[in-house]
Amino acid sequence: MSWACAQCGSANPLEADECSACGAPFTAIMVAAGPAKAARDPGTAATWSLVFPGGGHVYVGLLGQAIARALVSLWVIAIAAFSASQRGPGATVVLVVFCLVAFGLWILSAHDAYREAELDPGAVILRGRRFVFLVLALLLLLTTVLVVAGLAGARTGS
């Protein structure tokens, strides 16, 4: 026996709590269909996200996702900016790593806003648990980079 996802139609085993294809929760099949989302231009959504991460999600009407994406992006940029103001090889490593992460989040935010505007939730990369795992991975990355940088500074006496 299986259940069909309310968002993408994929078949999933009864034991699954969420859709294996798009990540939609099992409970979504029991929610009454509400009014259809207003059509939004995917290009405009992506452009707003390129101007400011989360901007495209505001445009699409997903305020919670917009706030979460904006806060994570600002946090990553703040870490990079703080690292830029420091001296030493450890600070340079943190700066480079978190600039790359900020760029990746910027691109992913634009991609996801585009897909949300297309009403294609199965193609959205960062949603739900995946977004939480991203934040946890960033915390682990920050901790690891700071420990390595601290150990490198202790060896060189800086």
Structural description of this entry:
The chain has about 160 residues and is mainly alpha-helical. It has 2 domains: about 35 residues, no CATH class; about 120 residues, no CATH class. The chain is about 60% helix and about 5% strand. It has 5 helices and 2 strands; from the N terminus they run ββααααα. The protein has a two-stranded antiparallel sheet. Helix 1 runs antiparallel to helix 4 and helix 3 packs antiparallel against helix 4.
Strand content: under 5%
Distance between the termini: 63 Å
Strand order of the largest sheet: 1-2
Q: Which range best describes the helical content: under 10%, 10-25%, 25-40%, 40-55%, 55-70% or over 70%?
A: 55-70%
- What Rg is obtained from the alpha carbons, in whole angstroms? 19 Å
What would you call the quaternary organization?
Answer: single chain
Order of helices and strands: EEHHHHH
Structural class, please? mainly alpha
Mean pLDDT: 85
Catalogue the unreliable spans: none
Overall domain count: 2
User: Got a strand count?
Assistant: 2
Gross geometry = elongated
Largest sheet: 2 strands, antiparallel
Tally of helical segments: 5
Concise structural overview:
This protein is mainly α.
Please give the structural blueprint:
Layout: E1 2-4, E2 11-13, H1 42-51, H2 55-60, H3 63-84, H4 89-117, H5 129-156
Antiparallel strand pairs: 1-2
Helix pairs in contact: 1-4, 3-4, 4-5
